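Think of the structure tokens as a kind of shorthand, similar to the way a musician reads notation: each symbol stands for something richer, in this case the local conformation of the backbone. In the example below we present two proteins back to back. Begin with the first one, reading the sequence and then the tokens, and try to describe in your own words what changes along the chain.
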Amino acid sequence: MSIAMFAAISLICIDVAAPSVVVVQAADTQLTTPPADDIDRVILAPASEPAAAKAEEEEEDDSDPLAFEGESDAAVVQRFVDYLEQTTTLTGGFTQIAPSGAISSGRLYLRRPGFLRFEYDPPDPLLIVANGGLVYVYDDALETTDSYPLGKTPLKFLLSKKLNFDKTSVVGVDRGVNNVAITLASKKDDTEGELTIIVKAPEMTLIRWIVRDLQNGITVVTLDNVVAGERLANRLFRPPDAGGAFLKN
């Protein structure tokens, strides 16, 4: 399996082995963090432009109030749910750090509910598309497409029309001065891993998400230049043509 394919599969949390250390390098931050023990540093790291992030760090001190101070975790979760369920489309750039430490970048197109497209920059030969309840991973170099049920991946929490809390647990609510992180997991074993969604506060705009797989490996996706509400063509979410072999799991 290529490094690029490994990174893509880790994004949707299928068959990933966890390393002991992840090196996280996004547009605004560089962290070396044990995935199991120090993930809070990644969750609540600023995700704005470098100059703004530096200014935020200089301004923050121990006396700075946390986001939505005085509100209960339940109220913060409801804010997040309202934001997510009102979101129709998002576009922007992304930087992805796989459990192996491999760094990829590209363009993201998201249309809720149910649709997602990751276009990876060269030399990565990958395209990931979510459509019709499946996640397709196309490798242009091999001319193969693997597909996985969306419901088996933590991406379902991001793409579902509504969050069903009869089936979904809120594992954690973490607050920084400017960010809020909500960690979601399935109450049953039908979803392989957890998803932490990080939004900027108080605006409640998506800036990052983190997938923790069953082997405790961490994949971090940080967004930049995000635009909400644009009309997105259906062709963006057309399942990729395998060209050669088509593998369906």
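Once you have a description of the first chain, move to the second and do the same.
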Amino acid sequence: MFQEFAKFLKEFNVVALAVAFIMGGASTALVNSLVKDVLMPIATPFMGAESWKEALWHIGPVTIAIGSFIAELFNFLILALIIFIIVKKLLKMEEMAKK
């Protein structure tokens, strides 16, 4: 049974997947901190609010939390850029290995 388990781990790269999952979580926490603690305080003066968390748009009876939306948009864009760069490098390395 132990041999089957070891074969499963090797065949499906479970250890690499676990490491990637942990690194992804750490990267997300780092990007969240970058956006909320560095970028958003810089953008606050342009939002017309004391704090980016308080930046709201009032459209009739509807209130839109534009500050929170912009923070999440920055998070998404930065994480997407990081993933794009990593995948691009990995594909380039894989292509070089094939040659």
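Compare your description with these statements about the second chain. The helical segments are 2-11, 14-47, 66-98.
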